[in-house]
Amino acid sequence: MSIEKIINEQKDFKSFAAAYAKYISKLLAELDLVALSHVAEEFEDARKNKKTIFIIGNGGSAATASHMVNDLGFGMRAHIEPSLKVMSLTDNCSVLTALANDVGYEQIFLRQLQLYSKPGDKLLVISASGNSPNLLLAAEWMRKQGGKVIGFLGFDGGKLKGLCDVPMVISTPKGEYGPVEDVHMILDHLVYTWLWGKIRKEAGI
Question: How many CA atoms lie within 13 A of 185 on its CB side?
């Protein structure tokens, strides 16, 4: 199954929407739950040890990074301490445009990591293709510093797959950005909801 096949086979929006939803359900059924469990463990480890998880991505994945900070940072903080420290490096337009203009777009995340990252911090890279140069540079640097790299990836995982300690790949034909990004957002809500519930149980709330 593929999005192109769904588009070609459906004659109206209603049938297309039903087929698209079925496709997303298929991708969810194929999730690597072992890898996803490791993702949750890395986030919990960061919370307990008061380390920061930096999140980066381009385009739609940049929006996912922002959304995850809202959920996992401030959403968690509303319930119990210690909160999970998460920071999106996609949100400061002045920093991003200055770095892109002065040193090149491929370094917009690397330079921020070099400024903000401390030993023990982690990096979550979000990318459908897994081949964006600015994400690759950031992941390579974080690994050299001894930090963990987590990946929300798509297609075949790209070059980033080999740089991630915990790669979470949503396998689709290349170019299917929408379904991959849909599932990445669901991964955010899965991890957040699990950690939120676990923390509340431990605190007896």
Answer: 13
Distance CA 196, CA 179 (A): 26
- Span 45-68, average pLDDT: 96
CATH number of 31-203: 3.40.50.10490
- The half-sphere exposure of 198 on its side-chain side, counting CA atoms within 13 A, is 13
Domain limits, CATH 3.40.50.10490, in the chain: 31-203
State the Cα–Cα distance between residues 127 and 153, nearest whole angstrom: 5
Rounded distance, CA 197 to CA 8, Å?
42
pTM: 0.94
What is the percentage of the chain residues whose pLDDT exceeds 90?
Answer: 83
Q: Among all chains, which residue has been given the structure tokens 């070609």?
A: 8
